[in-house]
Amino acid sequence: RYHGVERRWRTLMALGMAGWTLGMFFWAFYRSVLHVPLPSPSIADIGFFMFPVFAVPALLSLVRQSPRREAIGPIHLWLVLTLDGLVVVGGLFILTWTTALGAVVHTGPTGSLGFLVAVMYPITDFVLIAMVLLMVIGPKAVAEIREPLTFLGCGLVMLSLSDSLYAYLVAIGAESMPTIADAGFIAGPPLIALAALTKRTEPRNRNAPQQWRSDRTQLLLPYLLIAVIATIVTVQALIVGNLDAVVVILGVGVLVLALVRQILTLLENDALLQQVSAAQDELRYRAHHDPLTELANRAAFDEHFASAIENYRQTNSDWVLMLVDLDDFKQINDRYGHPAGDRLLVALTARLREAVPEGAFVARFGGDEFTVLLQGTIDDAVVVARRIVDALRSDQTADTSVSVGASVGVAHFESAQFEFGDEPLSAHTLLRQADAAMYEAKRSGKGAVVVYGDRRKWLSP
Fold first, then answer.
1. What is the mean predicted confidence (pLDDT) over 401-409?
2. What b-and-e string marks burial along 407-420, b requiring 16 or more CB atoms within 10 Å of the CB?
3. Mind listing the pLDDT tens digit for each residue in 329-350?
4. Over 60: is that where the pLDDT of 13 sits?
């Protein structure tokens, strides 16, 4: 019923379980039928060793279909994963040495084939447990294969734990194996069978991006493993009174690797913080700037406008508001389309920037309207407004043959305050006055400058 990777990992695990079952058959036959110890090495050992030989590639085939996508770069990613793997491998080796492997090495007849077989059992178990843990802290499984991976990983760990415990009991000369120690042998195969029977979970939205698990496990697992190792080694030192040289050397090596991993984590966090800061700066910029013209947008104008009014109230300095509206711009969009209109807006925006003095605040008010806040007298404002009209006049644009221009309405803060007497000056009042002056300029033939409350009109030549 399955194809590709789904079929491959099930086939590999079936071959591994077939070997394991063969080994268990011979072991049970010798112990329960012949009532004699199983010789070492034997055919059963070949069957037992088939299990990790096929289980490891089965795990790798599952991991390959869910590669981890990180923004920290492939070299840094693999360096971090390698260090995490070495920490886990070193830690598990220490645990294996202090429990089963060390006892086998110290009590077994070194140099014989039987000794090699005895040592290989805890080593292969250690490899399988390390593989499962590396799957947890390495490339994360996507949601649709997480359930079979969970069953498979638990089954492999259960079998490995009971197998290592059995090797340890044999090494120390135990006459029998406690019932609880058989729990892994009993629970492991059903868990692996459940993994094979579990179907992929189809994503609800195939077009949606895959959801990845949190990286907290990757960050914490190596250090949790070190804490467990330190606890076990400390208890062993208190009970036995001394530490094995292998444990000391490997323990120091694991601590050094963990320290290097921590340094890389700090560097990674610093890089991520810089990315977050850059993203926040970009969001802040986009929140206050028009995406087409890169001018300040309406929200930024409102903030700057409120500050200018407050400055006028406190210092009574001269401030002027100009409302600039493009003439005949609608014909550009109607005739040549909005892309041509957008290109023209960008070109005219560059001219507008050059026409205003350095201290002026320019914003795109909306559509083809712009605002200019200028600190200065009304005469200075008229000079700037006429310069704007001249700069925005375009007889033959690059994309069109329609001529455009601009009409400017000017509102003076002091005049607006004088008009309303004791009433507080408001942004609404100034905008209404500038808008009325701008429409008066439109009615005067376009391409004109009108100051609100002033009968003079400055028309373009």
1. 82
2. bbbbbbbbbbbeee
3. 888 888 888 888 888 889 899 9
4. yes
The pLDDT value given to residue 396: 46
Averaged pLDDT of the chain: 79
CA quadruple 140, 146, 149, 155: dihedral sign: positive
The pTM of the full predicted model, rounded to 2 decimals, is 0.51
pLDDT (tens digit per residue) in 73-92: 556 666 776 777 677 777 76
101 versus 262: the higher-pLDDT residue is 262
